[in-house]
Design brief:
The structure is a homotetramer. Helix content of chain A is 76%, strand content 0%. By secondary structure, chain A is mostly helical. The relative contact order of chain A is 0.13. The longest helix of chain A has 29 residues.
Chain lengths: 194, 194, 194, 194
């Protein structure tokens, strides 16, 4: 079973999600700066969710470079990931339009957490299929960032009720953590060529 | 005629449909749990429709692995399938927003039924093209799940007026039936390699 | 310059247009048959526009099977076609929601006419590039259906003000004309193989 | 690392953006010519933004023809470009619905300017990766149009407050400048073949 169509479908869904996000930026009435002001939190949330989806696409792209075999279980593990990603626009809209209130801030963490879990399941499934000595297993063996992210989401969800700003800080820190270039896959690809 | 572009177009349409569904989950006003309550039936219907579209994509992917030849009639049989799938977001939205009322529950079954019929037409057309001894013909010869599904939809449409919960039960059972891994195509692909 | 990316982009835009159409089928309030009645003209217009976009995708697919070379002018001729196709959802929505009034019926013909002209330009440009003895030139030399369609749109636009039903009839006849399988390209592909 | 998936994802996002634009052309109530009148500025802005996105897709297509290698930094430079392009529908809707007021006209220039800067970053990154003697470096060395465009956007943003028509003129002139065929890449591809 070839991975081409799984990649194409995933690219399609992620491309649509990343552009549907922007539909929450509704065109305001009036043409003054004041009319734009209520859009500021919506815009900031948009940027955060855009970065998260970009990170997922990027990591998906990297991980599948080292994948040679897939099966039916991988298709479903991937669809499970896409399900949680598909809730990002809703969570983004709710947090943005409520000016970062406690409950929407907390709930924004739920699809983040579930997508991270779905990612881990997909990753484990792929490693099992490629075999223990495979490039994928070696490249992803420590999973340090994955565990930090899960811990941060688990903290951010309840702490939003103490102060939403703690959760915002955690969401931003995790995003920055992933923006720092992750050389594991590229290093491995380079070594393979030698 | 190559199947690549048919697969790409189908992936595109399905990727869009599966993400358009989520637009029915409209961002509520207010930031309390109470504001989310009316969304519960919408969300449950969303999950069901997401699973149905995921099943169709998965089965499409599997079936076309065994397809070597297509022609103009396959393009139209495939577009006919996409037409009925394209009505899923509408049927989903109507059932979800009306809290599973009798008529919307009944009508939800219509695109399900028509898509199942369109699928059968596409499958028969492809088997005819590949020839009677082909892998596709052998892999799909019994069609047991297909007949169960058609029967369930035909029951669910009128029984919604007796009690919508019967129809919901049938819709969920059919979805679960297809989620159970279908090994026919994968078994065949594995045998072919031997 | 390879045609792969032009095909992929075109498939993407057409897949989105064909699914955006369905957004005009807005979920009605209320869960009675009466709530669905105003949607009947919207639904019929949806079916018509779906068929038109499906025909364009189908013909695009067929035509590009015989294309070996493209250049920058083909990219723009193709984008010009996509521009007019992108107005289908608007024209569809306006005609459907106004119950087939005279002006919306007339205006529905404008993107149809312009897309047909854009198609002709793209076709001529491609034939010129492939050369006079090419398979594309031979397969498409008569262009009978193209001329009939242009004439029908040119009649339908003014005649909507006499009686919109004349225009509806013309739009449906042209669609049916193209649904009848067009064997020119397939015949040519089959001959080439001999 | 192969460029195929980056191209496919970019095509997906651009295809969606170019079709989401048309959602701002909301179906008017009433079926008279008068009901269409308020849509005229929305339509004109739509045409302008469609052309800009088409130019970006076209240039992206051309540039990547000469690209042999990409890395993680290219993925992010490309996502950065897509971020600014994703704001086109919002900027288009705001300018169109406010009948070309001063502030929306000025702000329309911001994503144009930022996308042009993001384009330049992507271009420089790609040239650095392909090496100084590469075809890409030679084909794009002067960058005349890129500098003219940046200057025009930098002028259009403040001058909208003097008279929005100056900015509209600048936006249209830059678009026309890019519509004039740019033979640099095609010339280079032709030479390479010799």
């Amino acid at each position: 079973m070839s991975k081409g169509r799984l990649e194409a479908f995933t690219d399609g869904v992620m491309a649509i999600l990343i552009t549907i996000l922007v539909l929450e930026l509704r065109v305001p009435e009036g043409n003054t700066l004041g009319a734009l002001r209520p859009l500021v939190p919506v815009f900031l949330t948009y940027v955060l969710s855009f970065v998260y989806l970009a990170i997922y696409w990027n990591n998906h792209h990297h991980m599948f470079q080292l994948v040679d075999r897939i099966d039916g279980s991988v298709l479903w593990a991937n669809l499970h990931l896409l399900f949680w990603l598909s809730l990002f626009p809703f969570a983004t809209g709710w947090m943005g339009e409520n000016h970062f209130g406690a409950l929407p801030t907390s709930l924004y963490g739920v699809p983040l957490l579930m997508a991270a879990i779905a990612w881990t399941i997909l990753e484990r499934r792929l490693i099992a299929l490629q075999g223990p000595g495979s490039g994928l297993a070696e490249a992803l063996e420590d999973g340090f960032k994955e565990w930090i992210s899960l811990a941060a989401y688990l903290l951010a969800i309840p702490l939003a009720f103490v102060d939403p700003r703690i959760s915002h800080g955690l969401y931003v820190i995790v995003a920055l953590l992933w923006l720092v270039p992750d050389r594991r896959v590229e290093t491995h690809l380079a070594e393979r060529r030698v």
